[in-house]
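Hey, can you fold this one?
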Amino acid sequence: MNQHFKAWCRVGALFLLGAGWVALTLARPLSPPPGLQADGLPALQRVAAAGAEAPVLRFLGWHPQRREMLVLASAGGSLQLHRLAEPGARPQPLTGGRERVDSAQWEPRRGEYLVFSRDRGGDEAFRLYRLQPPEANSARLADPQPLTPAGARVSAFQFLPQEEGLVYVLDELDGSRNPAPSDALEADAEDAAAAPSPRTRSSRSQLFWMDPTRPESARLLGDTVGGRYTDLRISAAGTVLALHTLKGRSQTLRFDLDPAAAPGGQALGGGSQAEGRDDELLLQRQALNGDFRQLVQLQLATGQRRAVNLPELAGDLEALALPPVGSTMPLALVHNEAGVSVLRLARLGSEQPLQRVAADLPAGVIQGPQWHPRLPLLAFNHASAQSPGRIVTWSPEAPGLQAWSGREEGATSGLDYASLRWKSFDGLEISGLHIAPPAHFKGPRPVFISIHGGPSAQARPTHLSGSLRYLVETLGMHLILPNVRGSEGFGQRFLKLDNGRRREDAVRDISALLDLIASRPEMDARRVIVSGGSYGGYMSLAVATHESARIAGSICRVGIANFVSFLENTESYRRDNRRAEYGDERDPEMRAFLQGISPLSRAAAVRKPLFIVHGRNDPRVPYGEALQMVAAVRAAGTPVWFLTAEDEGHSFSRAENRDFLFSATVAFVQQALAAVPPDAEPVAADADVSSDLPQRSKAGAK
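Sure. Predicted structure:
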């Protein structure tokens, strides 16, 4: 038995018997729910804080006639549709079951029915359903009617105005090729580590029109093989637009709703246009003349784009809410300014300055702003360090804001965000968010680095998950949420600094962060845990291979282990988009490069405990990525905890699965930290064993 594995087992035994473990948990043992398979994990006990998350409602939209909201809320362990009749009211359930609802829209004229989408087991094969809700306060749930076929993915849908039906994008799916976990885990390491057979099917995307009251009415508007339709939008006059991408080239197409017309879109500015629509404009977000996304007008007749003349704003335009047709309400704009959402109102063509509203809300993130179709009410979701999520409304007819759900819980000790900045290998300044443990924890404290996915997501000052709060408040850890190069919110140049052959420059940003931690007396550089999900999962694996001597352990959730097998086996509808980000594995030179930087190629360098979490139905990062990495790291003698879910995909959404993952995460962190010898010296940043990333000069990084 490998000596590292023996040491890990000894620490685990002492850990489970120690007084700290008794204090950490409740008395009863924790068994995995039926959908989970725990391999290599010790017997766990339920952590006391598991399941303590406050209930959160998420605003989806207004009823077209009534002062009433459609919201998502947890019911039976999954997100379901609810009706919220007034501020503070108890939400009325509209859907049920184990499968979560993803999105929903009311029929826009009278609101007599709604259409929603849901998948199965996290597979993201979203299917549309029509629902005729029961009367208000009824305890009965109506049966939804399927509108689209099973086994395909509705990636977007929008209602047309004036009872003209809806349009939706249907993506063909490759289907799962993931082996059963028992089959792979019983195979020898060499066989299990072999990359799965690549998928060869070309992507296919179709655009349909349908009258939801007659599903058989579905009619094809557009069909692309090898391409994809995205950014589906409907103008106020009912013009259907979608972005068509094929072989790396994208253009916005207009689609004819005439039943006699042949399927296929027309490029904007080409050919004749429908009568009365030649001067039609559409507002959108785009980085047209600068580094940040701004408000842009699209002329549908010519296809020309023009930036709207607004005062210079220091940040990305991340959301906008158009006023209803014929309304006197202003345009609502949400900008991302240094990670904080700022809401302003604008009247186009007016000399009036932008009006900032909701300025008294705690610094946080605003999502989903939407005006009521008939009433002067703007609603949006708001999350901050103090609140996991609230639904808030603003009206020009009433002063201040009104909360429809949630409450500000007040500042919690140890949960104050601070900005952290450091210089990377090439002099580029990298930033992140830092939360220090409560003041009663004395001396150098361990550090938990949580890397976001995307890659183009962003760490922002929102409410922490239960596990992260537990690590800070109960275990006394420093929490760092880095925004490495390639993150959103810092402009288009910063966003592209990790593309293609510059991928490992982002890993170097974390190496520079480890240097910073080593220089901070309040942080214990010997006890650092690195964690991440999706692309952040790749980052955690990459750090584990290059910086094993400087960390105590790593956690990878649904992460990429091998870029080549990932690109070959991710669903075809998203493959070309990912090739643009990571590189095209069909090119021999790029394929060799991607193989070389993949964590799987360096699995033997992982010498600290590793926890891998993956859903078997994941269409984005196939489950085979986890199987390969688990087998390869174990073959090198390093212990791996492996948690997989048969009823989850790219995230764990079921409450019982999340509770188990919560307890397992806390147990792994404690055991990994306990394995660090108390007299261990921090590894110097310039030591040969601390980092074997090839050195790059500033010139080479440009």
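The chain has 14 helices and 38 strands. Let me know if you want another pass with a different chain boundary.
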